[in-house]
User: Fold these one by one.
Assistant:
Number 1:
Amino acid sequence: MTAATDTGLRVELIRSLGAVAHTPPPESGLLFDALGLPTLTGAAYTRAFVLSAPPHAAIHLGPDGKLGGIGLDRVEGFWRAAGQHPPADADHLGVLLMCYADVRGQIRSPGAHRIAESLFHEHIWPWAPGYLQAVSLLGDDAVTQWAQLTMAVLDDEYGRLTPPDPLTLPLALREAPAPVAIDDDFEDLLDALVSPVRAGFVLTHHTLSCGAAAVGVGYRRGERRFALKAMLDQDKSATLTWLSTHAHDWARWRATRDDAASRWWETRADATADALNEMRGNP
């Protein structure tokens, strides 16, 4: 197999994985078949990619854990700096993977190769592993297998690209907002815990529902912030204990991945766990 053929096969695999996340069933059925994955139902797609874990960089790298804002602006700014018009839904993981495949496949263009490396290291790698870990735990076999295959492909791609400067983090992590702190007031604490870049971990509705059951409190449906507030209102100490354990679990998972971004996330999750442990002693 020639290098060009190998690259072509890999970029088509990446493109297909991105299209799966961006294309609801039944249109994505053929993609699942081609990838050897169980077919995803429309209900499961909506539950995973729309309601539980929308695959947007802004949610994971933006200061408030929400769609749009600076998290989206960074991705759109990247394309403008590259002299291209930003695609629609620019920070969606499916769009990022498909766009990455487009530029990565231009193997005879040094400029395209540099754009691909920058896109990967600045706008995919800083948050995609955490997102894929979170979505793999939602309990749907097709989604889990998609997430695991996507993570394996991204790990392989990371090893093929020019490694980033180990002393220079991606801009989103360098400019990350303040982490969870012992002196946060209650409202700011809630904001921080549902913002992955502040907390160091991901809280999905599924995670919170399981957490409520483990803590022994009622789970109130609504926005994640609302559900988390209800848990803390019912049993602050037990909920903080569960959150601290969740943070430590994420830190341990990050510790299995040896790159600068993962070490940053590990440090942030550990700091959150420590702060939550201290909070348990506060009234």
Number 2:
Amino acid sequence: MIWPKAVQDRVKVGGDREILRTYPYRSACPSNVWADLAAGAERELFLAGYTNYFFWTTIPAFSDLIRRKAESGCRVRVLLGDPTGEVTRQREVIEGVPLSVSTRIRITLDELARLGSIEGVEARLSAAEDAVNHVSLSVFRFDEQALVTPHLARLVGHDSPLLHLRRHVDGGMFDRFAEHAEELWERAVPVAS
């Protein structure tokens, strides 16, 4: 009643104010956005993508960044799909690309193994019963911001859309996606050292 309709149509006033930016493709999100969010995380760096391998190809010296984050008290978690799981195998058939899903997961596992055991860094594989829910939605959390990719039917992650969110309200969009990732994490299986 106070605001003219023209202003209401342009100003974010509800839950949509948690949406900072949208990209029609995850690959359209500039690499500096990923790097700045990862570098700026102080409490929580939670990579809940199915493969996560692209962090090592997108952010220079990403392993060093993980190490520094953990040493400064930031909780670092990496949730991956099971490279030998049935959902992974099915997804490879659907995607039909040379750089297979299991290979991308193994790249991440190899990078994590090179880091060695670092206090504050945890890695898990999603539970078999959750794999289909994990492969269809990637949530990358950086404290109170997140980059979220809902994967479209037959597309590889970088060809699916991306939402950049910032938490503003309890129970908003950010919380909904963060809770999804937390639920997957709780049932996930720790990666063997």
